[in-house]
């Protein structure tokens, strides 16, 4: 049976996109390697590492994820984050246990109505994930759409997406899982049109259980939103990172 021309065109387009992604990965790898080398020089023997690769190292990125020793204080974290950010070409910076936030001055922070709207949505429903996974359940697709709609009036503000777990399992694994789930929600909202620069993913593990609930209660496994800056960010190509 002859293949219809539209199918040929679609297949060709898909192949072109795939080839473009592969070519992009190869051509940008030297750039990411240069950034990684300069970052390592800036960090010295601090114990902080900067990862400029996504997907188990397959995809180079200019947006590094930093990892710091557990005993490093906030002032030190801020200093090393800014040292990496100062490298020409580096984009937004994430910490492996949270996310750097942009510097927006000392203006007092007050919640916006969008935070209340999102909280109202999440009071009635929960963003659910596949069991033991960071993949958002398809049953939560509509809720993600509603959360995105509630956040749009606050574009220009900085919004934290906070992942929480119960205290079953090792604390370090809980923190990592809660961050990965918060990051998954961030990516889902970006896909709905919310600018990535407006969203900050944070993983709090089991450190902040719901008031009145036992730390082991599964209801502590949740995603929360909070407005952490209410003035528009300074329009620069990249955020200026803080400690996390």
Walk me through this protein's architecture.
This protein has helices at residues 5-43, 74-85, 113-124, 141-151, 171-191; strands spanning 49-54, 59-67, 94-95, 98-99, 158-164, 199-203, 222-229. The chain has five helices and seven strands, in the order H-E-E-H-E-E-H-H-E-H-E-E. The chain folds into two domains: 5-96, Alpha-Beta Plaits (2-Layer Sandwich), CATH 3.30.70; 113-229, 2-Layer Sandwich (60s Ribosomal Protein L30, Chain: A), CATH 3.30.1330.60. The strands form two sheets. The protein has a four-stranded mixed beta sheet with strand order 1-2-3-4, covered by helices on one side. Residues 6-27, 100-111 and 232-244 have low confidence and may be disordered. The longest helix has 39 residues, at 5-43. Strand 1 and strand 2 form a beta hairpin. The chain has 244 residues and is an alpha/beta fold.
